What we know:
alpha+beta; globular; 13 strands; two-stranded antiparallel sheet; 11 helices; 11-stranded antiparallel sheet
Amino acid sequence: MQTPSLRVLTQADFNRFAALSRDDNPIHCDPAFATTTHFGATVAHGMFLFSLLSAQMTRSFPQPMLPIAQSLMFPRPTFVADGVAAVLALQPSPGPQAIALDTEVRCLQRRGEALDDPAAQVTAHGQAELLLDADAAALAALADAAPAGDSVQPAGDATLYHLRVGQSAQAIRAFTDADVSGYAALAGDVNPFYTDAVFARSRGFDGALVPLPLLAGMFSDLLGTRLPGRGTGWMKQVLRLRSAACVGEPLTASVRIVRLRADKALVNLATDVRGADGRIVLHGEALVLVRNLEDKRTELAA
């Protein structure tokens, strides 16, 4: 693995990812709002942190590599001005063309001061799966073998604030070359599958692919601005790429509430992205914290 480098996060970084993902959730973009929450300052988007991990994957493997799965938990917030590093560790391979990784985002500095406690440093952790020497046929074969259904959730509460099980939200978007260029510049992820249409076509795809963190950023938009809404905090996300999405293709992202836990202000949601032909592009599940919802504050103040 390539040695990770330190990156000090700025409000400009958060704002740039908000523009790319369309998630202007005030916990990321509004310092005044963020100071009134339990965070106390603006925090990084979960998928922005994922983009830093994706960039480290690209730097660490010289051969063509495509991220196809990622789970991430966010045990601690990552604040503006934190100095972070994306750390990867190889795990036993799940298949002949696949690589498994443990992934972590570590906060090594907070407001310029070193964090020496290893446990306190981890602000995001999970597992990734990469397809080495990737091409369209290999991705299709792996996707056919992967489960696509939602996990069975234990019983929860019928309502939480204005939320209820079964509520859903959708967003439609076609990513542009400018979106991918902006992502590559912000994250430092110059994976040729994303940035080189000629290379992607040589691997059997119809053109340059939408980066996995940008696809998942459609969930960030829905969760942080629509359902549950502004003030939502991401606790966990599981992602599995099931088919490639090319730049310019209309995509539909959906989130649906499957469980509510009123005692902990937690919401579980099924998440997916579908292509213009209805195929599943990206499938996953989310767990979010709704303690800071703007709508909840309005209800309680009424």
